[in-house]
Amino acid sequence: MAKLDRVTVITEALDLLDEVGLDAVSTRPLAKRLGVQQPSLFWHFRSKEELLAAMAEAAMAPHATAPLPQPTDDWREWFLENTRDFRRTLLLRRDGARLHAGLLPGKADLGRITHKMAFLTGAGVPEADAQMAMLAASRFTVGCVLEEQADDRVTSESVPPIGHEAAFEAGLALILGGLIARMPDRSSSGRAGQE
């Protein structure tokens, strides 16, 4: 096998995650998969928690590298698509929502978050509302994907089942609707920076 490095370990760990699920990911099967002794992994990661955090960050790469909003973008459309993209990224990996849950933004993420917040406030969204809407959308999305990946739907004869995507879209529309309702009248209907 090629020289063992962090990227190789993370890549193999994510492949292992997809095969066996988060509960079965541990350093023992990962070391076996890599053809090394278990202590070799601790050269790159001091603990399983550090490895899981690196896996979560790598799993979020598709969302973390998506194009940032531009001043001419409609903030409402961007908000919806940004949240949908987050959901799609979580769904790319088995137990992706569980892996991501509780992860704090890294240094690289902070610049992107700042840009997104500046975009929303530039469109006239009050800063506190923009922060809470982004947080609510993020937590809502993680919760939806947790349910979807667990697939523990309880069916009842009195309540028709609602598809995961339909439930997600309905909830997302409610979040956006609530944000729009809190917008100052002068900026709720235009593109970023337009009045």
From TrEMBL:
Q: Which residues bind DNA?
A: 26-45
Specify the HTH tetR-type domain's residue ranges.
Answer: 3-63
Q: Mind listing the UniProt keywords for this protein, alphabetically?
A: DNA-binding, Repressor, Transcription, Transcription regulation
The domain of life is Bacteria
PROSITE patterns xrefs = HTH_TETR_1, HTH_TETR_2
Annotated GO biological processes are: negative regulation of DNA-templated transcription; response to antibiotic
Molecular function (GO) terms for this protein are: DNA-binding transcription factor activity; transcription cis-regulatory region binding
Q: What is this protein called?
A: TetR family transcriptional regulator
Q: Which organism is it from?
A: Paractinoplanes toevensis
Q: What is the lineage of its organism?
A: Bacteria, Bacillati, Actinomycetota, Actinomycetes, Micromonosporales
